[in-house]
Amino acid sequence: MSKQTFLQGTLILIFAGMITRFLGFINRLVVARLMGEEGVGLYMMAMPTLFLIMSLTQLGLPVAISKRVAEAEAKNDHAKIKKILIVSLLVTGISSIFFTIIMLVGAPYIASHLLTDKRTLLPLMAISPIVPIVAISSVLRGYFQGRQNMKPQSYSLVIEQIVRITCVAVLVKMFLPMGVEYAAAGAMFSVILGEFASLLYMVYQFKQKKTIKIRYRFFAYVKSSKNVLKELFSIALPSTGSRLIGSLSNFLEPILVAQSLAIAGITTVLATKQYGELTGYVLPLLFLPTFITNSLSIALVPSISEAEAKSNHNLIMYRIHQSIRISFASGAISTIILVLFSKTILIYMYGTDHASTLMLLMAPFYILLYIQSPLQAALQALDLARPAMWNSLIGNAVKFTVLFVLASNPTFGIMGVAIAMSVGVILVTLLHLATLQKYIHYFIPAKDILKMVLLLGFTWITGYFLKQFFLQDHTNLFLFLFVVFLLLLIYILFLFLLRFITKEELAQIPFLQRYIK
User: Helices 477-497 and 313-340 meet at what angle, rounded to 10?
Assistant: First the structure.
């Protein structure tokens, strides 16, 4: 099985992430154009329930599988790898069936009482079969990550998006005449088809590249896997605490938003529309750079785990610093573009700029989100998942408190929701940094903080003057794309001048190796 270095694996995941994000935006454009703000609102209100059920099903095993498989791979212990796979598949298989039933039975109550919109019932029912599919896929992805082979996962993500975007337009158009809730259910079902195609590819790759046979002496391996189960859960349970808090937060968020806006005197239909603008239009743009940070996080877990096993403290510190530096660089340019061109981007993408105020408010604070994911991965790889869980719990508790206080006030309304989300991102990121400083004495050097400030300042000033000089006519798409492209080129120059990208890192890119000595 092919194995990549930390940066090589990250670059493979980043490239796949770029493709999937592009396809994902096309998918969102299709959904938004066909279903409108109300349909997007129904779609987005149902999704957090799915994420909560998926987190409960996986029990944090993907991270644990990646870490334990990496350790077993280093020792060439194929028997243990097989035990890890068997136990993981058994646990996730049973839990997925259980929670799928719970989701189907509880959907009517969730839709009518918690989400306060009965039309979310059909999307909730339509998405429930995806749970066992994602559960099995997550085990296989954890296996490939642990063996530091990121190609199968990367290809599967692209396949999933291609199948989804192929099906969504057909299904939404097919069901839209029956009502917006049926259209939302059709969009949900396209997600299932995409995930199923992804799973089939992962299974095919596993059969092609495996060195172990799962079915051979299956029950004998189950009986002798008690210690493996304990090792997995020693990582999985604390890790799933953080995921569960995040998923529970996402589940409760639309409920609390709906209730708070109702207290503020905003009607259910208008609240659904505003929440659709925030979560369907603004958040996807703010989360755009996270495909880079998520790629770094996936590759970071086995890399830091290996360094920790070898007691290589310097490498651990370097990997964390490297991840923060690259994550910030990826998020800074996105933040500047979203702040400078918020209205233009929203109009071209969704045909409306109603959410531009929300974008301008949230974008500067969400730059901390881009370093949060690598910090979380580092804490999990260092067996500090429990402190990370408490950080997430504190951040979400504060977020919900601020959300209820502000969103229930007619003066703030949906802006209160945006402020609360920003507060949560800032607090959790700072708490993660404080935890790393406490346990391994890691801190971001003042010199690098100055570089980050200079990078933001130089890029914003450059973008502002480019906007003033070229974009007097906001309807010219060609000029807008030209300005963004020119700003990206100048930004890359700033990255080299401020040494956000080093010569050693460039040397690990295959097609640049021959040019860099």
Answer: 150
DSSP letter string, 57-93: HHTTHHHHHHHHHHHHHHTT-HHHHHHHHHHHHHHHH
Q: For residue 339, count CB atoms less than 10 angstroms from its CB and return exposed for 0-12, middle for 13-18, buried for 19 or more.
A: middle
pLDDT tens readout for residues 425-446: 999 999 999 999 999 999 888 8
Angle at 176 between CA 170 and CA 182, to 5 degrees: 100
Q: How far apart, in Å, do the first and last CA atoms of the chain sit? A: 29
Amino acid at 169: A
Burial environment of residue 76 by CB neighbours within 10 A (0 to 12, 13 to 18, 19 or more): exposed
Inform me whether the pLDDT recorded for 248 exceeds 60: yes
pLDDT band at 271 (very low <50, low <70, confident <90, very high): confident
How many CA atoms are closer than 13 Å to the CA of 516, on its beta-carbon side?
A: 12
Helix, strand, coil percent content, the chain, rounded in steps of 5: 85, 0, 15
Q: For residues 256 and 270, what is the distance between their CA atoms, to the nearest angstrom?
A: 15
- Is residue 319 within 8 Å of residue 307, measured between CB atoms? yes
Q: Rounded to an integer, what distance in angstroms lies between the CA atom of residue 71 and that of residue 67? A: 6
At residue 212, the pLDDT reads 65
| Of residues 167 and 224, more confidently modeled | 167
Among candidates 293, 315, 298, which has minimal Cα distance to 306?
Answer: 315
Nearest CA to 285 out of 323, 251, 249, 335 is that of 335
Q: How far is CA 12 from CA 65, 157, 298, 393, 464, in A?
A: 20, 12, 11, 32, 33
Sorted by sequence, the CB contacts under 8 Å of residue 101 that are 6+ apart come out as none
d(CA 239, CA 377): 10
Structure tokens at 428: 């959790």
Helix (H) or strand (E) holding 283: helix 283-286
Under 8 Å between Cβ of 102 and 53: yes
Helices 6-58 and 78-109, packing angle to 10 deg: 50
- How distant is the alpha carbon of residue 67 from its chain centre? 20
* Cα Rg, the chain, nearest whole Å: 23
Q: Which residues neighbour 416 within 8 Å (Cβ) at sequence distance 6 or greater?
A: 260, 402, 403, 405, 406, 407, 408, 409
- Asked whether the beta carbons of 89 and 139 are under 8 A apart, the reply is yes
Q: Is residue 276 predicted with pLDDT exceeding 60?
A: yes
Q: How many other β-carbons are positioned within 10 Å of the β-carbon of residue 93? A: 15
For the chain, give the longest Cα–Cα distance.
72
Among 80, 69, 67, smallest CA distance to 382 is for: 67
Measuring CA to CA, which residue among 325, 17, 18, 45 is closest to residue 185?
Answer: 45
